[in-house]
């Protein structure tokens, strides 16, 4: 771990290594009689690549997510939550260790966090709870692994030794995946999407950027199996409090989803996301360089934009259905009254906005994610918090909710004060790091500073789609200066 910015972050966040204690929040701590009451269970739900296209966040009004919406209705929905890095591995590593990407140096998917010297002594969330007497089990994509692997094999950054149990096995995070027989591009990328064989191969999306309406039942899908396994965990008689993690790969590409979910979104009714022609003209070269403009050109030329939006929406509703099965099972279980639920997605996704497909940018499409917390005795139903928060805040939030002391490793700011009172004050903005570049999001502003010193500034009060970069206008110099204080200093 680079030694630069932990102190900086703590200072910037107005935090010390000591816990920020809220009177009355340690409701699971020993009561006056001195008896230790039952620690709460934790249901930890991770979704892959889900942006703000949910009913409750309203990023796309077509999205049908009744189960995520009902979870939001039962607790606190953070409407301005952002990932700390817009890619699977760095985002998940920071969530699960509480260490910011700019501190750890884990900045891309190819960098295996556990093999990095900085993580030798890092305690992950499951390890923390296991050390505190919990039974910890997980299934599916929690740490980074390949969402599109045909066999479940391939890059898998899970550290299986930290779990009491893992599904589907102690060596594999995701159940076997059945590749669509209708896959438009074969795995060796030699068969192009008919009739779209035109154009140089390097200008087309890779084979795993694909979608298909599957004629399989839901039960054959890996995420369904993960949910079924998690449901079986909820039916057990647990002697210890549990930390149960279920990670869904949908709506990550490829969007191979049962047909009924496609049928929810008739192609002729699909609305494309709002875009502005030449939107990238006022972005610096580093920002433009993040965009897969070749893919976008190819998708537009082949008239596939609506199909891709339909496929992503189908993947979202499929993930939502699995969330619903899990919530139903918890409701029916004996753990319903004593289980904290947290739901989050590792980062967002562009579907053609700024001529980009995928994440790994510092704009709202990549950074904004669903984050919902339901904590019995703490959160009130149907609460919304507009403060800018980070997924880095999950770890200190869970430990504080359980009455555990904050550890020095954690760089996020506990959300517990906001769970009690969603309009409580907040020290800092949400910071997102993408490689050597960073973004700062407050309630009103998005400020981006690239490693070469170039900048972008967007005013969400007037420009929610981030069309107009204000960074070159001198009247915003003071705003930029204030926001730039939050940029990690090691860059
Ligand atoms: Ca992801
Ligand atoms: Ca623009």
Brief write-up:
The chain is of the alpha/beta class and 491 residues long. It is 25% helix and 16% strand. The relative contact order is 0.19.
Strand content: 15-25%
Total beta strand runs: 19
Provide mean pLDDT, rounded: 89
Main beta-sheet annotation: 8 strands, mixed
Share of residues in helices = 10-25%
Q: What's the Cα radius of gyration?
A: 22 Å
Bound molecules: calcium ion
Q: Given the helix and strand composition, which structural class is it?
A: alpha/beta
What strand order characterises the main sheet? 5-4-7-1-9-13-2-14
Total helical elements:
14
Secondary structure blueprint with pairings:
Layout: H1 5-12, E1 41-47, H2 66-73, E2 76-78, E3 81-82, H3 88-97, H4 101-104, H5 125-131, E4 135-140, E5 165-167, E6 211-214, H6 222-234, E7 242-248, E8 255-258, H7 259-263, H8 285-289, H9 293-301, H10 305-332, E9 339-345, E10 350-351, E11 357-358, H11 364-367, E12 368-369, E13 371-374, E14 383-385, E15 389-390, H12 394-401, H13 416-420, E16 430-434, E17 437-441, E18 445-449, E19 455-459, H14 477-484
Helix pairs in contact: 2-10, 6-10
Describe this structure in words.
- The chain is an alpha/beta fold and 491 residues long.
- The chain is 25% helix and 16% strand.
- It has helices spanning 5-12, 66-73, 88-97, 101-104, 125-131, 222-234, 259-263, 285-289, 293-301, 305-332, 364-367, 394-401, 416-420, 477-484; strands spanning 41-47, 76-78, 81-82, 135-140, 165-167, 211-214, 242-248, 255-258, 339-345, 350-351, 357-358, 368-369, 371-374, 383-385, 389-390, 430-434, 437-441, 445-449, 455-459.
- The strands form 5 sheets. It has an 8-stranded mixed β-sheet, sandwiched between helices.
- Helix 2 crosses helix 10 and helix 6 packs parallel to helix 10.
- The longest helix has 28 residues, at 305-332.
- It is globular and about 60 Å long.
- The model is unreliable at 1-36 and 187-198 (pLDDT under 50).
- One calcium ion (CA) binds next to loops.
